[in-house]
Design the sequence.
């Protein structure tokens, strides 16, 4: 199963698809800091993080944000959704999904090998970009994307629906936003009722959602 990394997935990685290398060696090449601890959010210190001075929070160029920027963006999203009457668990479930989709809750993130864009990687990106132009928002507007997310989650918008084979992870939108079900469950509800990711990385989403739950509680 792990032949691609010399049967040692803990210490080896194969980023090129041609030849595996020792992870510690790769970390030195990329300038990756010490492994993320439980007090740090997932993806907060990626080696390609852009400098804070080159990107204002909530209006970010494509790339990974700094940990501070990510926390500020998460707080903006949290405060807005909380003001809309969302439960903390529902908000953190969405933030956990955003963390995986845009890596650092970066509204300017382009999918590296596809057409996805933004906080939740709308694909095709024109879904959001056309709406943004019509409503006076820049492509990478954090609040523009949050408002578009709320619109497209509404009943009748055609984006929030039970996904075949994952109908256990579905509840009506109005139930979801006020739900106090577990973080793990709500993270998967958003994943399968809205995101429907080809490669779900479910554990990463759940871990990220629980990180934000601990952060905001």
Sequence:
């Amino acid at each position: 199963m792990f032949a691609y990394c010399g049967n040692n997935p803990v210490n080896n990685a194969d980023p090129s698809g041609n030849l595996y290398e020792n992870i510690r060696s790769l970390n030195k090449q990329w300038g990756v800091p010490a492994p993320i601890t439980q007090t740090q959010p997932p993806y907060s210190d990626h080696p390609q993080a852009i400098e804070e001075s080159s990107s204002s929070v909530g209006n970010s160029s494509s790339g990974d944000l700094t940990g501070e920027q990510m926390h500020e963006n998460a707080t903006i999203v949290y405060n807005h959704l909380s003001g809309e009457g969302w439960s903390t668990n529902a908000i953190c479930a969405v933030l956990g999904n955003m963390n995986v989709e845009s890596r650092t809750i970066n509204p300017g993130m382009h999918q590296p090998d596809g057409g996805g864009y933004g906080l939740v990687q709308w694909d095709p990106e024109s879904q959001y970009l056309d709406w943004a132009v019509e409503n006076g928002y820049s492509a990478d507007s954090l609040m523009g994307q949050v408002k578009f997310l709320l619109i497209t989650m509404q009943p009748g918008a055609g984006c929030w629906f039970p996904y075949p084979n994952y109908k256990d992870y579905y509840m009506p939108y109005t139930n979801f936003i006020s739900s106090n079900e577990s973080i793990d469950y709500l993270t998967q509800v958003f994943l399968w009722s809205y995101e429907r990711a080809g490669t779900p990385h479910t554990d990463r989403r759940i871990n990220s959602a629980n990180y934000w739950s601990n952060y905001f509680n």
Notes: Residues 65 and 73 are 10 Å apart (CA to CA). The first helix runs from residue 23 to 30. Helices lie at 23-30, 67-83, 88-101, 126-134, 142-153, 173-177, 183-195, 202-216.
